[in-house]
Design goal:
By secondary structure, the chain is mainly alpha-helical. The protein contains 6 helices and no strands. The longest helix is centred in the N-terminal third of the chain and has 39 residues. The two termini are 18 Å apart.
């Protein structure tokens, strides 16, 4: 039998995992269908984006690869600029509204991953999984 604390734990971290995961998935879909050409256009001088651009013809996995790369460049721009994947002028000229939207979707994905890890560790601790 489960107690109230276990139920709240499952509802909290399970809900975070699924809620933030859905936000991230729907964000990917929105970015691909409605914003992809703008993103590629604004990052036309960035070597990391140019190297991944050919994967757009590779189907669903190629599109996911490109969006994940671009998202990581824009969420952690100092690392991407340092390693040469993101051009500094492209980053400075990128529209702030679109940048905020991309960061929101990818930070939601990171939060979903963190909630999943806490959820799995908690389930292991409670003895629900072996």
């Amino acid at each position: 039998m489960t107690n109230d604390d276990e139920v709240w734990f499952v509802l909290t971290f399970g809900g975070l995992f699924f809620g933030l995961g859905f936000i991230s998935i729907f964000g990917h879909v929105y970015l691909y269908f409605f914003q992809m050409q703008k993103i590629i256009g604004f990052l036309s001088n960035s070597h990391g984006v140019l190297a991944r651009k050919s994967f757009l013809k590779g189907g669903l996995f190629g599109i996911n690869f490109v969006l994940t790369g671009v998202g990581s460049f824009l969420v952690f721009p100092s690392w991407a600029i340092k390693c040469g994947a993101l051009d500094e002028e492209d980053y400075l000229n990128f529209p702030r509204g679109l940048l905020g939207m991309i960061r929101f979707f990818y930070i939601a994905a990171l939060g979903s991953g963190g909630a999943m890890i806490v959820f799995l560790v908690g389930c292991k601790y409670m003895g629900w999984i072996e």
